[in-house]
Design goal:
single chain, 459 residues, GMP Synthetase, Chain A, domain 3, Helicase, Ruva Protein, domain 3, 19 helices, 9% strand
């Protein structure tokens, strides 16, 4: 990179860092390399795994920030790197091994034409994962861990209700690390399998083999770690396994249906270790994400859905989780096939009426949300929209703006104007800040949920 290009790119990076959140910048935009600046055209280079996603998701942001430095006529192009460069200084404390995934402490012997059930599902790859506001952080962190094991986030703890994609991300990590870091040994299992294998080894005198099977790996991926609760001996063994791997510099990724702080039956020292790295939660997808999931599933399965409105009807009705959403699509397609009727909006609603009845929707205005927030936090309306940044006022204001975005169809600028003439970036910051705080605190989440419930019932 020439000195001039280096200087220009550093200015653009400063603009980018001010525009997006710090984790987003660090994971997606900071790794970009400026490789050419010819006339009014800037060329950036991204890794093969992230190029398409960066171009699609951040193309406009890159364009705006670059134009702020070089002028409005500039165009930005993001191209795929010709090869993946190993990060400088990266090393692995374990000896080089072949990739191995297993759910048993015993060696797995598998015929080549009969893959082990523990092997990562090739269909559960990052390319098949639909990204939305509800899972963006978890996806970004999983991808970062896959590209730089034990260097990005360690441990990575992904939590959320069942059926939202935690296992999909875990499989995606295993697939990507296996493809691009073949020298690393991967161990993938579940909390239940770990417990069963531990008890078997304990009863058969095979503890040395059990410990070697888990403590001498480069990457440990454990699904449903909440299964370890109330199993004292298993918790003790996992605690020592966790510490051994962490001290050796191995990557650890865990999933759970609850935040570490909510795993009350686990020992404090385990919960503290789970929360010591990055905790990324996954929430139920919003309507645009649900619709994107259905479209991708229909395309992936080669389904000929003539009426796209049918997908919208399913996405509108089924909001529980991704698994239920895909199940509803399969049910509608099967009914269409068996009856010979085209898959229309009417047929989709007919099929789903029995399983997912329409719920009454209570529409609230911004003013109603403001009044409810003032009552909940015992502040005045004037204080809520004031310029005060004291915690007593700032937190209720952030919660109110968060719920205004969640429960109304108002635009971000409109919400900002209703809260003392603030701009849309302030509203977006309030939404993100509230998400972060309720993800990290059970008490704060309960407070927000209580306010949401009051608004939905009108009490």
């Amino acid at each position: 990179m020439s000195a001039e290009l280096d200087h220009v790119w550093s200015q653009i990076q400063a603009e980018l860092a001010e525009t997006v959140d710090e984790p987003v910048y660090r994971i997606w935009l900071e790794p970009l390399r400026a490789i050419d600046l010819a006339e009014d055209h800037l060329t950036l280079e991204a890794s093969a795994q992230t190029c398409a996603w960066v171009r699609d998701r951040f193309g406009r942001i890159l364009q705006v920030c670059a134009a702020a430095v070089l002028g409005p006529d500039l165009t930005v192009d993001v191209i795929e790197a010709s090869q993946i460069h190993t990060p400088a200084g990266s090393s692995h404390t374990q000896a080089e091994h072949r990739v191995r995934t297993a759910t048993s402490a015993q060696p797995t012997h598998t015929r080549k034409d009969s893959p082990s059930p523990s092997s990562p599902n090739p269909k559960l790859a990052f390319e098949q994962f639909v990204i939305g506001d509800s899972n963006r952080l978890a996806h970004a962190a999983a991808l970062a861990v896959s590209e730089m094991p034990a260097q990005a986030y360690n441990p990575l703890f992904i939590c959320g209700p069942p059926g939202l994609g935690k296992t999909h991300l875990l499989s995606s990590i295993a697939n990507l690390i296996g493809a691009h870091h073949p020298q690393l040994e991967i161990r993938r299992t579940t909390g239940e399998a770990f417990t069963n294998d531990f008890l078997l080894a304990l009863g058969s005198g095979g503890m040395d083999r059990f410990k070697a099977g888990f403590r001498h790996v480069d990457v440990l991926l454990i699904d449903d770690v909440q299964f370890l609760e109330r199993k004292t001996k298993t918790e003790e063994e996992f605690f020592h396994t966790f510490d051994a791997l962490y001290e050796a510099g191995s990557q650890i990724v865990l999933t759970s249906d609850r935040h570490p702080s909510d795993l009350r039956a686990l020992e404090d020292r385990l919960r503290e270790r789970f929360a010591a790295g990055l905790v990324a939660d996954i929430r139920p997808p919003d309507f645009p994400t649900r619709l994107a999931i259905l479209r991708k599933r229909a395309h992936h399965d080669g389904l000929e859905v003539v009426d796209q409105a049918a997908l919208e009807a399913i996405a509108e009705r089924v909001s529980v989780n991704v698994r239920a959403l895909e199940g509803a699509l399969i049910r509608a397609v099967a009914f269409s096939s068996l009856t010979g009727r085209p898959l229309t909006t009417e047929l989709a609603r007919e099929v789903l009426d029995g399983l997912y009845p329409r719920a009454a929707v209570t529409v609230r205005s911004i003013d109603e949300i403001k009044v409810a927030a003032c009552k909940q936090f015992e502040i005045t309306g004037e204080e809520l929209v004031s310029s005060s940044r004291t915690p007593r006022i700032a937190w209720p204001r952030q919660v109110a703006m968060y719920l205004a975005r969640e429960l109304t169809s108002e635009s971000l600028p409109a919400i900002g104007r209703a809260f003392g003439g603030r701009d849309h970036t302030t509203v977006l910051h309030a939404w993100r800040r509230t998400e972060q705080r309720i993800s990290a605190s059970v008490e704060l989440r309960a407070t927000v949920d209580e306010l949401r419930k009051r608004l939905s019932t009108g009490s």
